[in-house]
Write a structure and sequence with these properties.
By secondary structure, this protein is α/β, with parallel strands linked by helices. Helices cover about 40% and strands about 15% of the residues. Helix 7 (about 150-165) crosses helix 8. The longest helix is centred in the last third of the chain and has 16 residues, at about 175-190. The two termini are about 30 Å apart.
């Protein structure tokens, strides 16, 4: 396996034992939960209390990061046309501070970010958090449910191929095309507020 500074995983509907097996296979010692609401109605083993207890049994730490790095901002200024604005969120001091704490944890543990969505390109852990980490020149790998780990660079190539505009000899360069693809994909999958956000039910599934 290539050397990664941090890993990510989406729990989706995976059984608890398989989830632990994937973490163990990647050498994970701490799970950083970046869900805004760390609960799952349909898969209760991924709710905060149950997950914390199971990880503790396996000798792993549970680290809550949803307040700083979650995908459902409470501030209505962080929504554009009712959709969470990842670019605006990434500029917030709270987000940057959360990244600092995450990096500090990664210096002491083998950290894996966890959210709900199976595919990294459907999730803010990739489109927001991992993007920001790679901009800090950290190597990020995404644990897939078949046990392979996809480097973030490969994710970005997939992002360009599936959601980017065709290359233009006289137009935008690779960096601009990638930024546009991030923006386009984020607008498609980011949390949509039904009203001005004021928190949400703890039983709801969340990013």
């Amino acid at each position: 396996m290539p050397t990664f500074d941090l890993l990510t995983i989406g729990h989706s509907n995976i059984p608890a034992d398989r989830f632990i097996g994937l973490l163990r296979g990647a050498g994970v010692t701490a799970v950083a939960d970046v869900r805004s609401i760390p609960a799952s109605r349909h898969f209760p083993w991924f709710s905060k209390r149950n997950l914390t207890a199971r990880l503790q049994q396996e000798g792993m730490l549970y680290l809550p990061f949803g307040d700083a790095l979650g995908g459902r901002p409470r501030d209505s200024a962080l929504y554009r046309d009712g959709i969470a604005d990842y670019e605006a969120m990434a500029k917030r001091p709270e987000f940057c501070s959360g990244l600092d704490r995450l990096c500090a944890a990664a210096a002491r543990h083998r950290v894996c970010l966890m959210c709900a969505e199976r595919d990294p390109l459907d999730c803010h852990r990739c489109l927001l958090v991992a993007r920001a980490l790679t901009e800090r020149e950290l190597a990020v790998g995404h644990i897939l449910h078949d046990g392979t780990v996809e480097p973030h660079a490969a994710i970005e190539q997939r992002l360009l191929t599936d959601y980017g505009e065709a290359a233009d000899l006289f137009g935008a360069g690779q960096r601009d095309r990638l930024a546009a693809a991030y923006h386009r994909r984020a607008r498609a999958v980011a949390y949509r507020a039904k009203a001005v956000p004021s928190g949400a039910s703890a039983a709801a599934e969340t990013r």
